[in-house]
Write a structure and sequence with these properties.
Layout (H helix, E strand, L loop, with lengths): L1 E4 L1 E14 L6 E14 H10 L5 E3 L6 H11 L4 E3 L10 E8 L8 E8 L8 H8 L6 E4 L8 H8 L5 E4 L12 E2 L3 H8 L4 H10 L4 E5 L5 E4 L5 E4 L12 H14 L4 H15 L10 H5 L10 E6 L6 H11 L4 E7 L1 H8 L8 H10 L5 E5 L5 H7 L3 E5 L14 E5 L7 H7 L2
Parallel strand pairs: 1-4, 1-8, 2-6, 4-5, 8-9, 9-10, 10-11, 14-15, 14-17, 15-16, 17-18
Antiparallel strand pairs: 2-3, 6-7, 11-12, 12-13
Helix pairs in contact: 1-7, 7-8
């Protein structure tokens, strides 16, 4: 899948609100933490990657700290990111959200959003992009009207592939001839004044779109297909936590489902299901394969599971973790830190047992399907090579701290009390 569009950095400032400013009637957010995630077209690409599609992203980032951070985050994914000198602009678009994350609310309460926007000059982008494309894969257009997407680019892309899936922000004429266009209800009404199936079909025909999909918040998703047939996918969503990024999920799932051979109604059902799952989680998070496939039969036993560790002195806690991991999929791959890696991380007196011995002991348990020694300080490179669906770690980790959490589903195994390699070593001294 090829994703083209406006790349952004989403910054989250989290905290609690306990009082109102005496200077103005505004809440005071006491900062308790912050983090950054991929936004805009980059989040669309991340959703595609989570759906196991080989994904290439084209877009513009600035020569600034935010641009460096975007590239850093993308480097920790499976996404093939293309940005060339002529794509560069002065700064990157950054959205900073100030959010109340205390237990006071059953949802993420957005206190304020600060947008630092970049408007990209597309003078050389179109020619450069088309010269760099090497396949005629389906294309997702993630347009936030920051300059990357133009009418000229769209016209020329139609000659490149039959499948163009568009998340729009400009005049509908920009996207004439697209396979699928997905505005939200507010955007569609701004275009055509009202929504009803008959006028929507006429609107679709006017711009020669095969399919018109209109997302309608908690009212689900509306579809007008190439035959003028209308379908409404309703939603039953309990406990909306955060709606940010839901539109990115919808366009990614639609493109994935259609290119996998599902019909448009099935694609809309899966997109609706995926978005419903995503809005029940805090922050901008990518869709999980299970989210999209919840309405159809899916064999979870096809999953590849990965876990890693030093496994210096094998104990019952290790064994139980591996047994738990094995139940999560078809194949279990275990990564083991090399001797050199362990020394760097834990000191010159470790490991107690050499990597060959540690590898053999894991293999002798007969639980893992493959055991691999890696020399890096983290298993990220190995994870990228294995491409697991699920990563399992012990209960002393939080999901956000697990290496690879950006690209695979994380399962936390509760710590087995009384078993610790460090404590075993300490007790023998």
């Amino acid at each position: 899948m090829i994703v083209i569009g406006d790349i952004m950095l989403d910054r989250w400032i989290e905290g609690s609100v306990k009082r109102v400013s005496p200077e103005a009637p505004i809440p005071i957010l006491k900062e308790e933490g912050q983090h950054e995630t991929l936004g805009g077209a980059a989040n669309v690409a991340l959703n595609c990657s989570h759906l196991r599609m080989p994904t290439t992203l084209y877009g513009a980032v600035g020569y600034d700290v935010s641009g460096d951070r975007i590239k850093e985050l993308l480097n920790n994914t499976y996404i093939n990111f293309h940005y060339m000198p002529w794509m560069a602009c002065g700064k990157s678009t950054t959205k900073t959200r100030f959010v109340e994350t205390s237990n006071k609310f059953p949802f993420i309460k957005h206190v304020m959003r600060l947008d630092d926007e970049a408007h990209f000059n597309n003078k050389f982008f179109t020619d450069g992009l088309l010269n760099s494309l090497v396949t005629n894969d389906p294309i997702i257009i993630s347009d936030y009207n920051k300059g990357v997407i133009t009418k000229e680019l769209m016209d020329r892309l139609h000659n490149w592939t039959h499948y163009t899936f568009v998340d729009p922000k400009q005049h509908p004429e920009t996207y004439r001839g697209a396979f699928l266009v997905k505005p939200n209800m507010k955007e569609y009404v701004a275009w055509n004044g009202r929504f009803d199936p008959k006028s929507a079909d006429e609107f679709r025909k006017k711009y020669h779109w095969n399919n018109l999909v209109v997302t309608d918040s908690d009212n689900g998703i509306h579809l007008i297909d190439e035959n003028g047939l209308y379908y409404h996918a309703t939603t039953e969503c309990e406990g909306v936590v955060d709606v940010a990024g839901a539109g990115d999920t919808v366009i990614a799932v639609l493109a994935w489902a259609v290119t996998q051979g599902w019909d448009m109604i099935e694609a809309v059902q899966m997109a609706n299901q995926g978005a419903t799952a995503v809005v029940q989680r805090a922050g901008v998070v990518p869709v999980d394969m299970r989210d999209a496939m919840n309405m159809v039969t899916y064999d979870y036993e096809d999953d590849i599971v990965f876990t890693n560790g030093v496994f210096d002195i094998l104990h019952e806690g290790h064994k139980e973790l591996l047994k738990f991991a094995k139940t999560k999929g078809r194949k279990l791959v275990v990564g083991i830190n090399s001797d050199a890696s362990v020394k760097r991380l834990k000191g010159k007196d470790r490991p107690i047992n050499k990597q060959e011995h540690r590898k053999m002991m894991i293999e002798m348990l007969g639980i893992a399907d493959e055991v691999v020694v890696f020399n890096e300080d983290t298993p990220m490179q190995l994870i990228k090579e294995v491409r697991p669906d699920i990563i399992v770690k012990g209960g002393d980790y939080e999901e956000k701290d697990v290496v690879g959490h950006e690209i695979a589903h994380v399962e936390i195994f509760p710590t087995v009390e009384g078993y610790s390699t460090t404590s075993i070593i300490e007790n023998t001294k």
